[in-house]
């Protein structure tokens, strides 16, 4: 009879002790799987939600501040440098090392225009890319729709709430924007609900329209970048962008996301530490179970050694038994841990996890290793048995 057949028959003959050993591994494996599944869902959800915060890198022309000194007192400062970025430099952003992390690159142009003809009033006009800006400002709520790419004869505009209400403008209204000798007629296609930000006081139109109105063809005031990925190196990406565009300042705006991520990681680390301790306890449980099994089988092991079983064969039997306990415990632990995360994640972190199937072989592998390591002490006990003493007691 082969050794593995002996082990399997012995295991199923001692079902109670088998269940005790398996249960210890199940608890540890399920705890680790639940922690990883839950916090992976939390991390992914956080980064999905962070896309609603807008850009996380802002690119502006580089300026130098020169202090104004009168006597020994600083009375202010002036800024020097270009006020615009050449639009032709935009493709350079996609040459950076982390270009795969670039989700949206949206240029903008700001300026002061006049609204109305008979009694014009100055307003801030912001020109944007109609295809890319909606991805940056996905959290805006509109009464109407986003401006479209400028294909028609008339310009489309969106109004901030602080502009629309005082002027009595609504979706479908028409306005005239002027700047010097340039003017455009625009149709209001949306009013932006109050955001609490500066855009409440803006009129928003296409980038091409703003460039025409301000006589700034091929110029942009700033670029907003959305790097949408887990653990994007936004600080490093900012440095890469500055090197690629030259004479610009790229500032990372990810403090909120990073703070929340740090909190999640600290919580995850604490939970994982408890899980690892549980894993160690399960190893001790398996070891004690198998040690008790060895003590019960002293006569059997002694007889096997007397008839020629080698130390390697005896050790292999116990390692095989530990591997079986680990495999069963790890597989059941994966299922149980995934189910636990489905219950715990919505309650604790308000997220809905998905099964991480790659954890199944990982959990089984780790559990098998734990079971085999736990078999070392019982194996040493087994090979130390003196066949002669056992046979005298038979």
What would you note in describing this structure?
The protein is of the alpha+beta class and 394 residues long. It has helices at residues 3-13, 15-50, 133-136, 161-167, 207-213, 234-245, 255-296, 298-306, 311-348, 359-374, 376-383, 387-393; strands at 57-61, 64-70, 73-80, 85-86, 102-115, 121-128, 142-144, 155-160, 174-179, 182-192, 202-206, 219-220, 222-227, 248-252. The protein has twelve helices and 14 strands. The radius of gyration is 35 Å and the shape is elongated.
The percent range for helix content is 40-55%
Q: How many domain modules?
A: 2
SS-based class: alpha+beta
Give the N-terminus to C-terminus distance in angstroms: 22 Å
Percent of residues in β-strands? 15-25%
List the uncertain runs: 75-81
The gross shape turns out to be elongated
Number of helices: 12
Radius of gyration, taken over Cα atoms and rounded to an integer in Å: 35 Å
How would a textbook summarize the main sheet? Answer: 6 strands, mixed, barrel
Mean pLDDT: 80
The strand count comes to 14
Order of strands, widest sheet: 5-6-11-8-10-9
Order of helices and strands: HHEEEEEEHEEHEEEHEEHEHHHHHH
């Amino acid at each position: 009879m082969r050794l593995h057949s002996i082990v399997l028959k012995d295991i199923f003959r001692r079902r109670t002790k088998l269940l005790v050993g398996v249960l210890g591994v199940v608890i540890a494996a399920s705890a680790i799987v639940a922690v990883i599944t839950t916090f992976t869902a939390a991390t992914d959800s956080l980064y999905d939600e962070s896309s609603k915060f807008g850009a996380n890198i802002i690119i502006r022309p580089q300026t130098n501040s020169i202090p104004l000194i009168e006597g020994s007192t600083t009375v202010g400062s002036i800024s020097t440098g270009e006020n615009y970025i050449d639009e032709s430099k935009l493709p350079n952003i996609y040459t950076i090392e982390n270009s795969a992390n670039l989700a949206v690159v949206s240029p903008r142009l700001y300026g002061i225009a006049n609204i109305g003809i008979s009694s014009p009033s100055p307003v801030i006009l912001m020109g944007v890319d109609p295809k890319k800006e909606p991805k940056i400002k996905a959290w805006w709520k509109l009464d109407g729709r986003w401006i479209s790419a400028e294909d028609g004869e008339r310009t489309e505009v969106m109004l901030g709430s602080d502009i629309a209400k005082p002027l009595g403008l609504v979706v479908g209204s028409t306005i005239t924007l002027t700047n010097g000798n340039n003017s455009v007629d625009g149709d209001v296609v949306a009013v932006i609900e109050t955001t609490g930000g500066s855009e409440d006081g803006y009129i928003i139109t296409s980038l091409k329209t703003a460039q025409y109105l301000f006589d700034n063809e091929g110029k942009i005031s700033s670029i907003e970048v959305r790097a949408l990925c887990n653990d994007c190196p936004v600080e490093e990406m900012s440095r890469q962008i500055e090197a690629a565009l030259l004479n610009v300042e790229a500032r990372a705006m990810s403090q909120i996301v990073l703070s929340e991520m740090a909190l999640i990681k600290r919580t995850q680390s604490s939970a994982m530490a408890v899980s690892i301790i549980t894993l160690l306890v399960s190893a001790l449980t398996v070891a004690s179970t198998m040690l008790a099994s060895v003590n019960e089988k002293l006569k059997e092991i002694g007889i096997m050694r007397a008839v020629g079983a080698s130390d390697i064969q005896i050790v292999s039997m116990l390692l095989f038994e530990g591997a079986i306990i680990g495999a069963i415990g790890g597989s059941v632990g994966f299922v149980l841990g995934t189910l636990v995360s489905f219950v715990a994640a919505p309650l604790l972190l308000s997220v809905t996890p998905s099964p991480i199937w790659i954890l199944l072989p990982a959990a089984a592998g780790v559990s098998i290793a734990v079971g085999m390591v736990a078999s070392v002490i019982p194996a040493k006990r087994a090979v130390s048995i003196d066949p002669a003493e056992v046979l005298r007691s038979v």
